[in-house]
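Re: beginner question about structure tokens

> Can someone show what the tokenized structure looks like for a real chain? I only ever see the sequence side.

Sure, here's an example I had lying around. Input first:
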Amino acid sequence: MCVKVACVGGGPAGLYLSILLKRQDPSHDITVHERDPEGSTYGWGVTYWRGLLDKLHEHDPESARALERASVRWNAGVAHVGDLTTRHGGDEGFGIGRHRLLEILAARARSLGVRLEFEHEITDGNLPAADLVVAGDGVNSALRTRHADHFGSEITAGRNPYIWLGTTKAFDAFTFAFVETEHGWIWCYGYPFSPERSTCVVECAPGTWTGLGLDSANEADGLAVLEKLFADVLDGHPLIGRATADGSAQWLNFRTLTNGTWSRDNLVLIGDAAHTTHYSIGAGTTLALEDAIALAGALREEPSLPQALARYERQRKAELLSIQSAARYSARWYENLPRYIRLPPQQMFALLGQRHSPLLPYVPPQIYYRIDRAAGRLEALRRFKRWLGPKVARTVHARELASRRQG
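And the corresponding structure tokens:
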């Protein structure tokens, strides 16, 4: 049966879904609608890990090979805390420019017969006639917002302001830098996405942000402040902001989005339109592509659209539970940075790597560090830690939900 599919949003989720559906059945009639001009995407680099690349090779080897060739890679993490530096080996990571990622996926989609319509904004009032409409139009999805009550959308704003920047400094590892100022700590995460460019995300507590004058500075003045603060890690390279008409700086507070249900009739949510996870775990693009894989699989395996959409939602919600928990605790770790920042560098870096743990906020940091080191040597303690962590996470999350409902 030929299926007509309209993907709203030309991001990774919509483009990759169109590729997978065309590979499953070339007779599918698929159009991707993107409101912006082709090639105008904003963003620096995205990061992903070997596990995702293996999945991409399994589902579409051609696009996976192109992505791997266009990516830079690293296998270490570096943390700078004031004048102290520590470096650790780690899993293989990859970085690719967002523009290049979308360029590769768009070219692959076109080669398979997908229609791409740029500068074509879709709202609830001009939905295309299709058997399936896929809302991949991001966290501000117009299609989801129109039916927010049905989807049960909830958005929670994070405490700390942050800003996405680029730099001509090409980091050779996933790099963290923590700098103390008279107004508190400010930090950045940096990773390469090409041989000449890196992404640099800067974050701090609200009091530090206002104390440094970053809340009122225009972009040029704000970048000058940040370049001075992070001069050592940048090696004199500039930071690059987003060009705006009024010259304002693009500081944000991260918004965590959840939805009670992901579909309405023949409309289904995917990627950031369905869920967001804090940027500090670097999973946004990975989750969007995994959504596409799951949705394509459900549409292939199930005999009807309602059954396929229900299966997709069940599968992805189950798979997201641990990742969403990790993202919540990672964001909280940074919001409680003073609790960890004065530890010896080796301990601080180890707990930076353990920031996803639901146990860490409730155990004194140095005791947690000793338990974690011991768990690395004792299998019984490792099993206990794996058993206790999820129980604590579920209990705390249930209390938070109950508190929000009462409020």
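Each token stands for a local structural state, so reading them left to right follows the chain. DSSP finds 14 helices and 15 strands in the chain.
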